Amino acid sequence: MSSSERLTRASADTADAPVLVTGSSGHVGANLVRRLLDKGTKVRVLLRRDSRNEALDTLAVERVYADIRDIEDTRRAMEGCQGVYHCAAKVSTIDGNRAHRREIFECNVIGTRNVLQAARDVEAGRVVVTGSFSAVGYELDDPSAPSDETMQFYPMERTMPYERSKVLVEHECLRAVALGQDVVIATCCAVVGGADYVPSRLGRTMCDYANGKLRAYVDGGFAFVAARDIVEGHLLCMQKGRTGEKYIFASEYKTISDILDLYEEVTGLPRPNRRMPTPLMYVFSEIASFYLSRFHPSFPQRFTPGAIRLLKQRRHANIDKAKRELGYRPTTIREAVHEAYAFHHARNSILNPSAKRPHASDDDSQEAAFSPSPELAAADD
Prior knowledge:
Blueprint: H1 3-16, E1 19-22, H2 27-38, E2 43-47, E3 62-65, H3 71-78, E4 84-86, H4 98-122, E5 127-132, H5 161-178, E6 183-188, E7 190-192, H6 201-210, E8 217-218, E9 221-226, H7 227-240, E10 246-249, E11 252-255, H8 256-267, E12 275-276, H9 278-295, H10 305-313, H11 320-326, H12 333-346, H13 360-370, H14 374-380
Parallel strand pairs: 1-2, 1-4, 2-3, 4-5, 5-6, 6-10, 7-9, 8-12
Antiparallel strand pairs: 9-11
Helix pairs in contact: 2-7, 3-4, 4-5, 8-12, 9-10, 12-13
């Protein structure tokens, strides 16, 4: 076989190989898988058998079961892939108990190390790792000033185990790059949008609002990203990102009051006007989180000390690098909120009969964005 024939054969093999997505049942991963399928990309998803995996039901994907904390499992799951999107992570805004903190470390840090090692071992090509904006530094004298990729995480104050773990995830990525691996980090802000099967904290908050369970709020703000935008960011990182670089993807900065205005718009229900003083809520959340983390660790906590601290900082994201180098063009959080509401309404998570039905256009966009094409559905049969 001539050299040109070998190159042609290698190109064909690469084009036919699937990409691997970890964390495909989570908010970012579920949206990413749907976008890849819509593009005609072959997708293999790495799943844990003990996780909620309904986000992949009916989708024409290849399923492999493994735990990224096991390097041998991960290596076997990655065989034959060309390109990896590592979205899997244990997300949490609580300090938790010792077991909780260890789980965060093992899932996020050791898991990332194993994914990168496995990708090197089987020559799976570029790895795009989902980073977190909470691992990006900020201006110490003005935390609300826009943060960019050059700003170092500040470890000299109280931070959440999740935040610290995502800093170490970046360290693992840079360590892999130093070994010659092709790795790019797609830094994610607070995600809003559909295909939120678990659901996320923001998804639960929207459902609580629509079901009349949210009667007060804590003011503050954060950089939010539409689900479709963070997915676009991952694709751009795979296609155009520079090895060893990270890129921040956000859509808009919104205050909690802004988000409640959007919830009022989509649900038709009046927003709560009772704003709880931040210092009071911080003290209350410390007591509640301490008790729940130790005696009821599975109970979902909404306003945790870590979440309140982040909201109080009112952090903005500088996305100039992603725009300049990758051609990133964000959409709006208003669109994302409408998509999220249509998704949760369709899943019967909105039980309040007084809540509005989504607009027909929102239902249509959900169906287009989160259903496989007829060709892929036929292939799945």
